Amino acid sequence: MNESEWLAEQFESNRSHLQAVAYRMLGSSSEAEDAVQESWLHLTRSDPSDIENLGGWLTTVVARICLDMLRSRKSRREEFLDMSLAPAPSANREGGLDPEQEALLADSVGIALLLVLDTLSPAERLAFVLHDIFSMPFDEIATLVQRSEDATRQLASRARRRVRGATSAKDPDLAYQRATVDAFLAASREGSFDALLAVLDPDVVFRVDPALVAPGAAREFHGAPLVAKQFVGRAQGARPVLVNGAVGLAARRGKMYFVIRFTISNGRIVGIETVADPAEIHRLHFSVLDD
């Protein structure tokens, strides 16, 4: 085995880790793959004898590439939540993942977490992902974000508060909302029409984002029976999330991610709205809720 073959083998052994880092940093499989491929180009232009820890070196390179990509997004926010899922190391590089593999990866990353991460600044996101998810020391992260170690700790701390803001919430109203949404979610997943009727107000209104329906299809449904019919046996992949301080759901249809918002009164749901427009989603504030 010559040096080039050895280097390629070592890179492939690190690929799954690099893609995991890049996907959590970028939330986009195509951009994550681009970042990983660029790290390979960096490696081929470097002298391997100067690299003591190849895995750590590649992680640092990928993180720096992702940071630059995040900073460039301001001029192209329309690509927000291009969340087709990141290819696994064993996936066919041409065919990509099958739907079952994609669903498993989505669950492992967490729909709600990806939504929250995209609300962070690039430096906050990098500090949180590298330290809290991948256990990189703060002194190494500080070099990447060009801050002091203390300032880098503060970046991660701010991000942590955003990500985990709802997990310790004791607001009685939040608990009340959560119980109602949980009952709705359970009834939907179980396919129980009667249980859905029990949690919906008789005059509930359900408004659907145009991106989620075919042209000319109904976008508004009135009354508990008609609304319940839309959700029977669905919401299998939906996850609870705090949206602008209220309990909602994050879900996906194919490669499109969307948010379900609820209006609740007297223990019943009086309004349901889906939001799928990337620009609109970006204006929302998210925090992760325990599932």
Q: How is this structure best described in words?
A:
52% of the residues lie in helices and 15% in strands. It has 291 residues and is an alpha+beta fold. The protein has twelve helices and seven strands. It folds into two domains: 3-118, no CATH class; 172-288, Nuclear Transport Factor 2, Chain: A (Roll), CATH 3.10.450.
Quick take:
Helix content is 52%, strand content 15%. The protein is built from twelve helices and seven strands. β3 (239-243) and β4 (246-253) form a beta hairpin.
List keywords for this structure.
291 residues, alpha+beta, Nuclear Transport Factor 2, Chain: A, 2 domains, seven-stranded mixed sheet, 12 helices, 7 strands, 52% helix, 15% strand
Produce the secondary structure layout.
Layout (H helix, E strand, L loop, with lengths): L2 H24 L2 H16 L9 H18 L27 H11 L1 H7 L4 H12 L4 H8 L3 H15 L8 H19 L2 H7 E8 L12 E3 L1 H8 L7 E5 L2 E8 L2 E10 L2 E8 L2 H5 L3 E3 L3
Parallel strand pairs: 1-6
Antiparallel strand pairs: 1-2, 3-4, 3-7, 4-5, 5-6
> What is the CATH C level class of the largest domain, in words?
Alpha Beta
Q: Any idea what the CATH architecture of the largest domain is? A: Roll
Terminal Cα separation, in Å? 48 Å
List unreliable stretches of 5+ residues.
75-108, 166-170
Structural class estimated from helices and strands? alpha+beta
Count every beta strand, where a strand is a DSSP E run of 2 or more residues: 7
Calculate the mean pLDDT score and round it.
Answer: 82
Gyration radius, rounded: 21 Å
Strand order of the largest sheet: 2-1-6-5-4-3-7
Number of domains: 2
How many alpha or pi helices?
Answer: 12
Helix content: 40-55%
The coarse silhouette is elongated
Order of helices and strands: HHHHHHHHHHEEHEEEEHE
- CATH fold label of the largest domain: Nuclear Transport Factor 2, Chain: A
Q: Tell me the strand percentage band.
A: 15-25%
Largest sheet report: 7 strands, mixed
